[in-house]
């Protein structure tokens, strides 16, 4: 992922705060012997306190075709993208230039967690992983406890495999036109607020934060 200096996270706290509010992404696994990579949409739990850059916990069905590739090459990337908005060319036209000379672009935030995946196959290990995910996704506790040998989920444990990713590197990009002149950025902000399409409010909040930094 290309990250220009003006699109880089201001600091580590910026991407950590953004990621803390998200738990769905795409897991990319290298393909076997020239095959294309596997890209698996997945809910995940990010533990920011496990190691320097944290740990990712997730699980997938045992019949998933990516397991052989994952075991052969455990280096993976979990990609999380959100707050995206299409910016029409006229919105981005330089001050004094004809609107049709503006270059369209995309605004978005992308955080990529790179690390080494460890497959969890022992029943208690999988149960513990699922309990942690359940606590995150259903904090009200309105689900039966996951425990080996206990109904209803104990008998389902053989049908899944867990994955723990030790994150070794983080790439974070906040692409919201920070390289443009302030009048252009403020024009885009006003037009995002006026359009109010899905993703526009998130993009607008990021752009406002960048503008406040000068």
Chain-wise SSE layout:
Blueprint (H helix, E strand, L loop, with lengths): L11 H9 L3 E6 L8 E6 L1 E3 L7 E7 L5 H6 L2 E13 L17 E16 L2 H15 L22 E16 L6 H14 L4 H14 L1
Antiparallel strand pairs: 1-2, 1-5, 3-4, 4-7, 5-6, 6-7
What does this protein structure show overall?
With 214 residues, the protein is an alpha+beta fold. The protein has one domain: Pnp Oxidase, Chain A (Roll). Helices cover 27% and strands 31% of the residues. The chain has 5 helices and 7 strands, in the order H-E-E-E-E-H-E-E-H-E-H-H. It has helices at residues 12-20, 67-72, 123-137, 182-195, 200-213; strands at residues 24-29, 38-43, 45-47, 55-61, 75-87, 105-120, 160-175. Strand 3 and strand 4 form a beta hairpin. Helix 4 (182-195) packs antiparallel against helix 5 (200-213). The model has no long low-confidence stretch (mean pLDDT 97).
Write a short abstract of this structure:
With 214 residues, this protein is of the alpha+beta class. Helices cover 27% and strands 31% of the residues.
